Amino acid sequence: MQADSSTHAIYTIAHKHHKAAACYILGVPSRNTPCAQVMMMVGVNPVADALGRVNKLELIPLEELGRPRVDVVVNCSGVFRDLFVNQMNLLDRAVKLAAEQVGPR
After folding, report:
1. pLDDT tens, 5-35?
2. Domain assignment of residue 93, given as a range
3. Counted domains in the chain
4. Residues 72, 40 contacting (CB under 8 angstroms)
5. pTM for this structure?
6. 29 falls within a domain
């Protein structure tokens, strides 16, 4: 999974486990990689329905994640905000789901 491998690389730069990160998402074609990276950093998996639509999220247990969750600040362009409302809502739900969990950060 591209987001998982790039998130792992970002997370372990210089062999340090980062506690926080910032992400700027543009409104250009990107195959949703920035959204997936944010979800992987906070430790949330998107769950697709039978038609391939993502409407549900599941929290990745810390044991499976293998690291603390990363606090992520997401800033997006106005184009992304206006055109990709569903992805914005999904990111909002993912961050809230992760923030509600008790555990190491």
Report:
1. 555 555 555 456 778 888 888 887 776 688 8
2. 2-99
3. 1
4. no
5. 0.77
6. yes
Cα-Cα-Cα-Cα dihedral sign, residues 13, 32, 53, 94: positive
Residue 105 lies in a domain: no
- How many helices and strands in the chain, by DSSP H and E? 5, 4
For residue 66, the SS3 value is coil
Q: Is residue 104 part of a domain?
A: no
Of 78, 71, 90, 62, nearest to 22 by C-alpha is: 71
Strands (E), 1-105: 20-25, 44-48, 54-59, 71-76
- Residue 69 belongs to a domain: yes
Q: Which amino acid is at 45?
A: N
User: How much of the chain is in helix, strand and coil states, percent to nearest 5?
Assistant: 45, 20, 30
CA atoms within 13 A on the CB side of 67: 20
Residue type, 8: H
Q: What is the pLDDT of residue 1?
A: 46
